[in-house]
Amino acid sequence: MGQRKASKDGDRKVGRRALLIGGAAAAAGTAVLARDELARLWWRTPGVEKPRKAGEVDYAGARWVAASEANWRRADRPDDFGIDMVIVHVTQGSFDSAVKAFQDPGHKAAAHYIVRQDGHVTQMIRELDVAYHAGNRDYNERSVGIEHEGFVDRPQDLTDEMYEASARLTARICARYDIPVDREHIIGHVEVPGTDHTDPGPHWDWDRYMRLVKQARTAPA
Fold first, then answer.
1. What Pfam families does this protein's entry cite (predicted)?
2. DSSP code for 190
3. Which string of DSSP letters, residue by residue, matches 25-91?
4. What are phi and psi for residue 80, nearest 5 degrees?
5. In whole angstroms, what is the distance from residue 64 CA to residue 127 CA?
6. DSSP assigned state of 158
7. Strands 62-64, 143-148: pairing kind
8. What's the angle, vertex CA 145, arms to CA 66 and CA 193, rounded to 5?
9. Whole-angstrom Cα distance, residue 115 to residue 221?
């Protein structure tokens, strides 16, 4: 979450986009392109929802606690928006306060995961959906957000258990979407263009974290 709440980014108006793409493709004789595009957008048709299992998680070590639907946008990633980034946050509060905030429809922000100081992982938004966590629409659509319990000015909050659990989580996300394990694709909230957040802060040990992610990435699943 960082120092301030991110604002809600509005949904795309896909009806006109789908029609334009379909029309252009038909005019050009490339009906395959139109069918492919519409296949990715079918779930946005009124009255149609992509099948989902209640309480299902994307990371086997996580516990599911649902965020408010006001704090994320239904999607079909990576089919409609490719995922090529993990964004690291620090909650600026306790684990419980972060969960409460993400369940509050008035908060207008939430991340996919929260990692507690003892290494426990909670998932609050499915990875296929767009979480409002980065304060930048493009970055929201292409990333998975991971919050970490603590404060940016308290290095003691960044525990060994937290680093290790978060690194394993990030490694699995990178493996799932073929994301390179480097600092261009694993970034802090402070590095998102247009943001005024400072997390994960000066005490976040990037060298240590990236080393742990690389180790977890090459370890047996």
1. Amidase_2
2. G
3. HHHTT-HHHHHHHHHHHGGGSTT------TT--SSTTEEE-PPPGGGEE---TTTSS---EEEE---
4. -95, -35
5. 12
6. S
7. unpaired
8. 135
9. 19
Residue with tokens 């003691």: 156
Partnered with residue 13 across adjacent β-strands are: none
Residues ≥6 apart with Cβ < 8 Å to 206: 183, 188
What is each CA distance from 30 to 20, 23, 37, 81, in whole angstroms? Answer: 13, 10, 11, 22
Residue of 198, 216, 89, 91 lying closest to 140 (CA atoms): 89
Q: Indicate the pTM of the whole model.
A: 0.80
What averages of pLDDT result for each successive group of 10 residues across the chain (221 residues)?
45 37 44 51 52 91 97 94 98 98 98 98 97 98 98 98 98 98 98 96 98 92 60
Confidence (pLDDT) at 188: 98
The residues facing 25 across adjacent strands are: none
- Tokens representing 112? 């996919």
CA trace torsion 103, 173, 156, 198 (10° rounding): -70
Residue 179, C-beta contacts closer than 8 angstroms, at least 6 positions apart: 83, 84, 85, 86, 173, 185, 186
